[in-house]
Amino acid sequence: MTRPQDQPAAAPAAPKHFLSSLATTTLWTGLWAGLAAILLGMGFVPWLLSDTARLSRLIARAVPGLQADVAIGRAQVGWIGPIVIEDVRVVPRNGGRPPATIKRIEGNHGLLGMLLSLGDLGRFRVEGFQADILFEANRDSNLTGLFIPPPPAAGQSGPAPARRSPVRVRFEVDGAVARIEGPWSPDAWMSDPTDIKVALLPSADGNFSEWTVDGVQLLDEAKLEANVAQGVLAYIAPVMADAARPSGRFSLKLDGATFPVGAPDAARLSGSLVMHEVNLGPGPMVKNMLDSLPGRLQPPDSVRITDNANVEFHLANRRIWHKGLEFGVPLAKPAQRLDINSSGSVGLDDKSLDLKFALPLPADLPTDRPLLAALAGKSISIGIGGVLGEPRVNFDGSIRATAGEVAVDLLDRLRSPRQPQPPKPTPAPTPQWIPPQANGPAAAGATEPEAAPATQPPGSTAEKLNQSKLKLPSEIGKDPSAAAIIDLVGGVLEEVAKRRAERAAAAAENPNAAPPAPRRGRLLRRIAPPPSPPAPAPAAPATP
Fold it and tell me: Higher-confidence residue: 304 or 294?
């Protein structure tokens, strides 16, 4: 029989706090491991973003529709310190010249500040920004095709709507310059440095985000050269397109611009272009316009933009609209020119023209072009279509309406009785009237018999009118009313010239003769027949 004291003693029980100590140790180990992973990850993220190739891909993906790669020379990214990126180039994927280069971009805080700001990336200072634009003869450049519009969503018609961006950012560009090259001049045009402020912010209603550019004086009396005139300013002042020898100075001011994210068709900008003593050779637009006018004015050696002309422009629906552009074409008479006011738009993508020229004709145009002289003092409106460099002149009916107005004024003047003019005082006594010879001028009140039409001699007024009718635009030359108006004006001018020649010859033959009374010609008899002559008085009885 075994006694209790003879049984083996039981193993001592484990302390109760051992399990809790093991759990605590495991928990702390996990916490430290997690913290180490977080710290390692936090240290890894800046290293990851500092890789220039990886950062270039991230930036390119952040700009929707960008058909270019962003090459970076050096990047410094940290959680606390500022982000610095150097030697940035935008390289088109088609292999063209980089349109933009930047020496240095520096932010005002690091990654931690960006995370705590809930999408506000802060402010970045940009130094050494240069836009390098290379134009071709058709005005395409290395900017063409740099962006493509996003494809429309399924079931969507029309352009894609603007969208919101998850971030906000501001850029302050110090000393930005533009360099422009083209086939119009062997020398590149360079702008003066300009400070520009750009921001990506929500729109006023908060429905989408947009890039905004603050108003700024971009250029102040910059030198006008062929490359900038043909490549850039021709969209604001189309008269410069393919015009030779541009000279002078200009100022360019931007009132502001907005570019909604993902909706390039909704971009808006406005500003003003001021011309300072600008001269240029006549381009195809001026030549075609002068060729279309009655009288066939010869193109001048130069065209002068009105001094300090303030041309207001704005971008809407992918077209540049302008108004206030005035330029003058010199005429044959000294100190006289044909002033032209231009307004309308030019397409950014297709370079199409939709312009309106207003021509107030001077009151004393050259009299050797009868039809042009008949339109003196009137206004003509001309439409310009086609594309930049290949304009097409379209009359909007104003010449026909103006010619009709001239005809009505002329008929009213011919139908109204002439007012007697007071005689001019002469120091010599009144000479006796000498009866005209048989071959001299007709007596007062006499009329000419109708003459059969004859072939007009070269250089006569009628011959010039016939030439003018042949040179008129087809839509006017085929109009019977326009031809009738030309014949009417030409007949009056021919009659006036003939009467003046006859009177001059009579005065030369009989210098002491009294001036004959006004005579009524063929055209006047058609419009207002002369009154019947009074019955002759009875003859006096003969004196025995």
Answer: 304
More confident residue, 379 or 241: 241
CA terminus-to-terminus distance, the chain: 215
Task: Give the span between the Cα atoms of 335 and 274, in whole angstroms.
Answer: 24
Res. 150 pLDDT band, cuts 50 70 90: low
Which SS3 state, helix, strand or coil, does residue 233 take? helix
Q: What is the DSSP letter of 67?
A: -
| The pairing of beta strand 209-213 with beta strand 247-260 | antiparallel
CB 328 within 8 A of CB 343: no
Convert 373-394 to b/e letters by CB count within 10 Å (16 or more is b).
bbbeebebbbbbebbbbebebe
Contact at 8 Å (CB) between 173 and 126? Answer: yes
Tokens of 260: 């909604």
How is residue 143 written in tokens?
């900017």
CB proximity list for 421: less than 8 A, separation 6 or greater: none
Checking phi first, is residue 262 left (phi over 0); if not, alpha (psi -120 to 50) or beta? left
How far apart are the C-alpha atoms of 523 and 77, rounded to whole Å?
Answer: 92
**8 pLDDT band (50/70/90 cuts)?**
low
Residue 54 CA, distance from chain mean position: 43
**Three state DSSP letters for 374-426:** HCCCCEEEEEEEEECCEEEEEECCHHHHHHHHHHHHHHHHHHCCCCCCCCCCC
User: Rounded distance, CA 129 to CA 192, Å?
Assistant: 12
User: Which pair of structure tokens corresponds to residue 417?
Assistant: 């009785």
Please count the other Cβ atoms lying within 10 Å of the Cβ belonging to residue 35: 10
Tell me the two tokens of residue 434: 């000498």
**Residues 71, 88: contact at Cβ < 8 Å?**
yes
Q: What is the DSSP letter of 265?
A: G
If we measure between CA atoms, which residue out of 406, 403, 393, 378 comes closest to residue 473?
A: 393
The amino acid occupying position 337 is R
- Candidates 120, 125, 139, 147; CA nearest to 65 is 147
